Protein backbone atom coordinates (compact mmCIF):
# COMPACT_ATOMS: atom_id res chain seq x y z
CA UNK A 1 0.00 0.00 0.00
CA UNK A 2 1.41 3.37 -1.06
CA UNK A 3 1.49 6.11 1.58
CA UNK A 4 0.77 9.66 0.50
CA UNK A 5 2.81 12.33 2.26
CA UNK A 6 0.97 15.63 2.74
CA UNK A 7 2.94 18.69 1.73
CA UNK A 8 1.25 22.00 2.59
CA UNK A 9 1.30 24.66 -0.16
CA UNK A 10 4.29 26.98 0.00
CA UNK A 11 1.96 29.97 0.46
CA UNK A 12 0.54 28.41 3.64
CA UNK A 13 4.05 27.81 5.00
CA UNK A 14 5.13 31.39 4.34
CA UNK A 15 2.01 32.81 5.98
CA UNK A 16 2.62 30.70 9.08
CA UNK A 17 6.14 32.13 9.32
CA UNK A 18 5.15 35.80 8.99
CA UNK A 19 4.28 36.37 12.69
CA UNK A 20 7.61 34.89 13.75
CA UNK A 21 9.50 36.97 11.21
CA UNK A 22 7.67 40.13 12.31
CA UNK A 23 8.47 39.41 15.96
CA UNK A 24 12.12 38.83 15.10
CA UNK A 25 12.32 42.13 13.19
CA UNK A 26 10.72 44.07 16.04
CA UNK A 27 13.05 42.44 18.54
CA UNK A 28 16.08 43.61 16.58
CA UNK A 29 14.83 47.16 16.07
CA UNK A 30 16.64 49.64 18.30
CA UNK A 31 15.40 53.05 19.47
CA UNK A 32 18.99 54.28 19.75
CA UNK A 33 21.32 55.95 17.29
CA UNK A 34 23.84 53.83 15.43
CA UNK A 35 27.44 54.82 16.17
CA UNK A 36 30.07 54.90 13.42
CA UNK A 37 33.60 55.56 14.67
CA UNK A 38 36.29 57.21 12.56
CA UNK A 39 38.83 56.38 15.25
CA UNK A 40 41.43 59.05 15.82
CA UNK A 41 41.08 60.38 12.26
CA UNK A 42 40.42 64.09 11.96
CA UNK A 43 37.03 64.51 10.29
CA UNK A 44 35.82 67.99 9.38
CA UNK A 45 32.70 69.53 7.86
CA UNK A 46 33.55 70.86 4.41
CA UNK A 47 31.72 72.39 1.44
CA UNK A 48 31.99 71.57 -2.24
CA UNK A 49 31.91 74.05 -5.13
CA UNK A 50 28.10 74.01 -5.12
CA UNK A 51 28.02 75.01 -1.44
CA UNK A 52 26.81 71.57 -0.28
CA UNK A 53 28.03 70.35 3.10
CA UNK A 54 29.83 67.01 3.48
CA UNK A 55 32.20 65.23 5.85
CA UNK A 56 35.87 64.91 4.93
CA UNK A 57 38.24 62.45 6.59
CA UNK A 58 41.52 64.34 6.23
CA UNK A 59 43.60 61.23 6.99
CA UNK A 60 42.09 58.87 4.40
CA UNK A 61 40.71 61.47 1.97
CA UNK A 62 37.29 59.78 2.05
CA UNK A 63 34.19 61.97 2.05
CA UNK A 64 30.66 61.24 3.27
CA UNK A 65 27.27 62.79 2.49
CA UNK A 66 26.27 65.15 5.31
CA UNK A 67 23.80 67.66 3.88
CA UNK A 68 22.45 70.56 5.93
CA UNK A 69 20.25 72.99 3.97
CA UNK A 70 19.97 75.62 6.73
CA UNK A 71 21.87 78.79 5.83
CA UNK A 72 23.45 81.73 7.61
CA UNK A 73 20.73 84.29 8.31
CA UNK A 74 21.00 87.81 6.96
CA UNK A 75 18.23 89.90 8.51
CA UNK A 76 18.41 93.73 8.45
CA UNK A 77 18.48 95.21 11.95
CA UNK A 78 19.27 91.95 13.73
CA UNK A 79 21.32 92.36 16.91
CA UNK A 80 20.75 96.11 17.11
CA UNK A 81 19.75 98.58 19.83
CA UNK A 82 16.73 100.91 19.54
CA UNK A 83 15.05 103.55 21.63
CA UNK A 84 11.84 101.53 21.66
CA UNK A 85 10.13 98.47 20.20
CA UNK A 86 7.84 100.72 18.20
CA UNK A 87 10.77 102.52 16.57
CA UNK A 88 12.37 99.20 15.63
CA UNK A 89 9.20 97.69 14.15
CA UNK A 90 8.39 100.85 12.19
CA UNK A 91 11.85 100.79 10.64
CA UNK A 92 12.02 97.04 9.89
CA UNK A 93 8.40 96.23 9.06
CA UNK A 94 7.83 92.51 8.42
CA UNK A 95 11.53 91.84 8.92
CA UNK A 96 11.16 92.75 12.60
CA UNK A 97 12.56 90.06 14.87
CA UNK A 98 11.47 89.51 18.46
CA UNK A 99 13.35 91.51 21.06
CA UNK A 100 13.49 92.55 24.69
CA UNK A 101 13.94 95.68 26.77
CA UNK A 102 17.00 96.09 28.94
CA UNK A 103 19.71 98.47 30.10
CA UNK A 104 22.71 99.64 28.12
CA UNK A 105 25.63 101.55 29.64
CA UNK A 106 27.66 100.82 32.76
CA UNK A 107 27.88 104.30 34.26
CA UNK A 108 24.73 105.91 32.88
CA UNK A 109 22.48 103.01 31.86
CA UNK A 110 19.62 103.70 29.48
CA UNK A 111 16.49 101.61 29.09
CA UNK A 112 16.48 100.50 25.45
CA UNK A 113 15.14 97.79 23.13
CA UNK A 114 17.36 94.95 21.88
CA UNK A 115 16.51 93.04 18.72
CA UNK A 116 17.29 89.35 18.37
CA UNK A 117 20.63 88.32 16.90
CA UNK A 118 20.00 86.15 13.80
CA UNK A 119 22.35 83.17 13.36
CA UNK A 120 20.84 80.80 10.79
CA UNK A 121 17.49 79.96 9.18
CA UNK A 122 15.86 77.25 7.09
CA UNK A 123 13.18 77.02 4.38
CA UNK A 124 10.50 76.24 6.98
CA UNK A 125 10.75 79.74 8.44
CA UNK A 126 12.66 78.86 11.60
CA UNK A 127 15.43 81.23 12.68
CA UNK A 128 17.83 80.68 15.58
CA UNK A 129 19.70 83.37 17.48
CA UNK A 130 19.96 85.10 20.82
CA UNK A 131 18.95 88.02 23.04
CA UNK A 132 21.05 89.80 25.72
CA UNK A 133 20.60 88.16 29.12
CA UNK A 134 21.22 91.40 31.02
CA UNK A 135 24.50 90.26 32.61
CA UNK A 136 26.54 92.98 30.91
CA UNK A 137 25.26 96.53 30.57
CA UNK A 138 28.48 97.79 29.01
CA UNK A 139 28.34 95.15 26.24
CA UNK A 140 24.77 93.80 26.25
CA UNK A 141 25.28 91.31 23.42
CA UNK A 142 28.36 89.80 25.06
CA UNK A 143 26.22 87.18 26.79
CA UNK A 144 22.97 86.03 25.23
CA UNK A 145 20.15 83.62 25.93
CA UNK A 146 19.90 81.37 22.87
CA UNK A 147 16.62 80.37 21.24
CA UNK A 148 14.53 80.54 18.10
CA UNK A 149 11.61 82.24 16.38
CA UNK A 150 9.35 81.10 13.53
CA UNK A 151 7.63 82.91 10.71
CA UNK A 152 3.88 83.24 11.02
CA UNK A 153 1.31 82.81 8.20
CA UNK A 154 1.25 86.61 7.70
CA UNK A 155 5.02 86.66 7.07
CA UNK A 156 6.01 88.21 10.41
CA UNK A 157 8.18 86.54 13.03
CA UNK A 158 6.62 85.09 16.17
CA UNK A 159 7.89 85.34 19.76
CA UNK A 160 11.35 84.36 20.96
CA UNK A 161 11.50 80.85 22.45
CA UNK A 162 14.33 80.48 24.93
CA UNK A 163 15.97 77.06 24.94
CA UNK A 164 17.21 75.00 27.86
CA UNK A 165 18.38 71.44 28.38
CA UNK A 166 18.57 69.13 31.43
CA UNK A 167 22.00 69.12 33.06
CA UNK A 168 24.06 65.98 33.69
CA UNK A 169 22.36 65.45 37.04
CA UNK A 170 19.08 65.12 35.13
CA UNK A 171 17.24 67.59 37.35
CA UNK A 172 18.10 71.24 36.88
CA UNK A 173 17.68 73.07 33.58
CA UNK A 174 20.53 74.93 31.95
CA UNK A 175 19.53 77.87 29.77
CA UNK A 176 21.40 77.99 26.48
CA UNK A 177 23.82 80.90 26.53
CA UNK A 178 26.37 82.04 24.02
CA UNK A 179 28.66 84.87 23.04
CA UNK A 180 30.76 85.78 26.05
CA UNK A 181 32.54 84.67 29.20
CA UNK A 182 29.35 83.11 30.57
CA UNK A 183 28.90 81.03 27.42
CA UNK A 184 27.46 77.57 28.02
CA UNK A 185 27.35 76.46 24.42
CA UNK A 186 26.15 77.15 20.91
CA UNK A 187 23.21 76.09 18.76
CA UNK A 188 22.85 75.04 15.12
CA UNK A 189 19.81 74.51 12.88
CA UNK A 190 19.11 72.02 10.09
CA UNK A 191 16.59 71.94 7.24
CA UNK A 192 14.34 69.47 9.06
CA UNK A 193 13.47 71.92 11.88
CA UNK A 194 15.83 70.43 14.43
CA UNK A 195 18.22 72.34 16.69
CA UNK A 196 21.51 70.96 17.99
CA UNK A 197 22.96 72.26 21.24
CA UNK A 198 26.72 71.96 21.70
CA UNK A 199 27.95 72.64 25.26
CA UNK A 200 31.30 74.29 25.92
CA UNK A 201 33.21 72.03 28.27
CA UNK A 202 36.05 69.57 27.91
CA UNK A 203 35.26 65.85 27.59
CA UNK A 204 35.93 65.60 31.33
CA UNK A 205 32.97 67.34 33.05
CA UNK A 206 33.83 68.70 36.48
CA UNK A 207 30.26 68.99 37.71
CA UNK A 208 27.00 67.10 37.26
CA UNK A 209 25.31 70.50 36.97
CA UNK A 210 26.90 70.97 33.55
CA UNK A 211 24.77 70.61 30.46
CA UNK A 212 25.42 68.03 27.76
CA UNK A 213 24.69 68.14 24.07
CA UNK A 214 21.09 67.79 22.98
CA UNK A 215 18.89 67.49 19.89
CA UNK A 216 15.67 69.52 19.93
CA UNK A 217 13.02 68.46 17.42
CA UNK A 218 10.62 71.35 16.81
CA UNK A 219 8.30 69.05 14.83
CA UNK A 220 7.56 66.84 17.82
CA UNK A 221 8.43 69.26 20.62
CA UNK A 222 10.88 66.77 22.12
CA UNK A 223 14.39 67.26 23.48
CA UNK A 224 16.86 64.37 23.73
CA UNK A 225 20.30 64.65 25.24
CA UNK A 226 23.21 62.78 23.68
CA UNK A 227 22.99 60.28 26.55
CA UNK A 228 19.40 59.54 25.59
CA UNK A 229 20.27 59.11 21.91
CA UNK A 230 22.91 56.44 22.64
CA UNK A 231 22.36 52.95 23.99
CA UNK A 232 23.69 52.20 27.50
CA UNK A 233 26.20 49.80 25.91
CA UNK A 234 27.61 52.51 23.62
CA UNK A 235 27.60 55.13 26.37
CA UNK A 236 29.78 52.92 28.61
CA UNK A 237 32.61 53.16 26.08
CA UNK A 238 33.28 56.84 26.80
CA UNK A 239 34.46 58.87 29.79
CA UNK A 240 31.62 61.36 29.24
CA UNK A 241 28.75 61.85 26.79
CA UNK A 242 30.10 62.65 23.28
CA UNK A 243 30.19 66.35 22.42
CA UNK A 244 28.27 67.18 19.22
CA UNK A 245 30.09 69.20 16.57
CA UNK A 246 27.64 69.46 13.65
CA UNK A 247 24.59 67.73 12.23
CA UNK A 248 22.72 67.08 8.99
CA UNK A 249 19.15 67.29 7.71
CA UNK A 250 18.56 63.59 8.43
CA UNK A 251 19.46 64.10 12.10
CA UNK A 252 22.92 62.51 11.90
CA UNK A 253 25.37 64.10 14.36
CA UNK A 254 29.14 64.44 14.08
CA UNK A 255 30.58 64.22 17.60
CA UNK A 256 33.81 63.96 19.54
CA UNK A 257 34.35 61.59 22.47
CA UNK A 258 37.08 60.21 24.73
CA UNK A 259 37.39 56.47 25.22
CA UNK A 260 38.05 54.92 28.62
CA UNK A 261 41.74 54.62 27.72
CA UNK A 262 41.96 58.37 27.10
CA UNK A 263 41.99 58.20 23.29
CA UNK A 264 39.95 60.91 21.56
CA UNK A 265 37.78 59.67 18.70
CA UNK A 266 35.40 61.14 16.14
CA UNK A 267 31.93 59.61 15.86
CA UNK A 268 28.93 59.80 13.56
CA UNK A 269 25.60 59.18 15.29
CA UNK A 270 22.84 58.12 12.87
CA UNK A 271 19.16 58.02 13.92
CA UNK A 272 17.29 54.69 13.96
CA UNK A 273 16.33 53.43 10.47
CA UNK A 274 18.89 55.80 8.93
CA UNK A 275 21.61 53.89 7.02
CA UNK A 276 25.22 54.75 7.76
CA UNK A 277 26.77 56.80 4.95
CA UNK A 278 29.05 55.18 2.40
CA UNK A 279 32.28 56.89 1.31
CA UNK A 280 31.75 59.10 -1.74
CA UNK A 281 34.39 58.74 -4.50
CA UNK A 282 36.85 61.61 -4.69
CA UNK A 283 36.46 63.95 -7.70
CA UNK A 284 39.62 62.66 -9.46
CA UNK A 285 38.84 58.91 -9.16
CA UNK A 286 35.21 59.63 -10.05
CA UNK A 287 36.27 61.46 -13.22
CA UNK A 288 38.65 58.62 -14.12
CA UNK A 289 35.89 56.07 -13.58
CA UNK A 290 33.44 58.02 -15.76
CA UNK A 291 36.09 58.38 -18.49
CA UNK A 292 36.78 54.64 -18.40
CA UNK A 293 33.08 53.83 -18.70
CA UNK A 294 32.72 56.28 -21.56
CA UNK A 295 35.72 54.79 -23.37
CA UNK A 296 34.35 51.26 -22.92
CA UNK A 297 31.00 52.33 -24.41
CA UNK A 298 32.82 54.03 -27.31
CA UNK A 299 34.89 50.90 -28.07
CA UNK A 300 31.80 48.69 -27.94
CA UNK A 301 29.91 50.90 -30.37
CA UNK A 302 32.93 51.12 -32.67
CA UNK A 303 33.27 47.33 -32.64
CA UNK A 304 29.59 46.97 -33.58
CA UNK A 305 30.01 49.49 -36.41
CA UNK A 306 32.93 47.48 -37.81
CA UNK A 307 30.90 44.27 -37.64
CA UNK A 308 28.07 45.97 -39.55
CA UNK A 309 30.49 47.04 -42.28
CA UNK A 310 31.89 43.52 -42.58
CA UNK A 311 28.42 41.99 -42.91
CA UNK A 312 27.41 44.66 -45.40
CA UNK A 313 30.44 43.94 -47.58
Task: Give a verbal description of the structure.
With 313 residues, the chain is an alpha+beta fold. The protein has a domain at 29-69 and 125-285. It is built from 5 helices and 23 strands. It has helices at 10-28, 85-92, 226-229, 232-235, 283-312; strands at residues 34-37, 43-47, 53-57, 63-65, 71-72, 81-82, 99-104, 110-115, 117-121, 126-132, 144-150, 161-162, 164-166, 173-175, 177-178, 185-189, 194-199, 214-217, 222-225, 243-247, 253-258, 264-270, 279-280. The strands form 6 sheets. Strands 5, 9, 10, 11, 12 and 15 form a 6-stranded antiparallel beta sheet that branches. Strand 13 (164-166) and strand 14 form a beta hairpin. The longest helix has 30 residues, at 283-312. Mean pLDDT is 80; it is low at 11-15, 17-27, 283-293, 295-300 and 302-312.
Low-confidence stretches: 11-15, 17-27, 283-293, 295-300, 302-312
Strand content is: 25-35%
Helix fraction? 10-25%
| Radius of gyration of CA atoms, rounded to a whole number | 28 Å
Oligomeric composition of the shown chains: single chain
Main β-sheet: number of strands, strand sense, barrel status?
6 strands, antiparallel
Q: What is the H-and-E element order?
A: HEEEEEEHEEEEEEEEEEEEEHHEEEEH
What is the overall silhouette?
Answer: elongated
Provide the residue-averaged pLDDT: 80
Number of H/I helices: 5
Q: What is the CA-CA span between the terminal residues? A: 72 Å
Query: Which structural category fits the helices and strands?
Result: alpha+beta
Number of strands: 23
Amino acid sequence: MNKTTYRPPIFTVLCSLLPALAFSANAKASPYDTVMSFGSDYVQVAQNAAGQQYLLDTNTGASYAFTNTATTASIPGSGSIWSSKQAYEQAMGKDSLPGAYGYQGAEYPQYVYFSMTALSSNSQGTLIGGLPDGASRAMPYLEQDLGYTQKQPDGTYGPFHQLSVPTLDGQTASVFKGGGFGVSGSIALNGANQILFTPVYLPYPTSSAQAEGALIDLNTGTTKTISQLLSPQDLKLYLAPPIPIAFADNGSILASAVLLNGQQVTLLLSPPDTPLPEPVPEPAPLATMCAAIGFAIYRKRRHKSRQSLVHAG
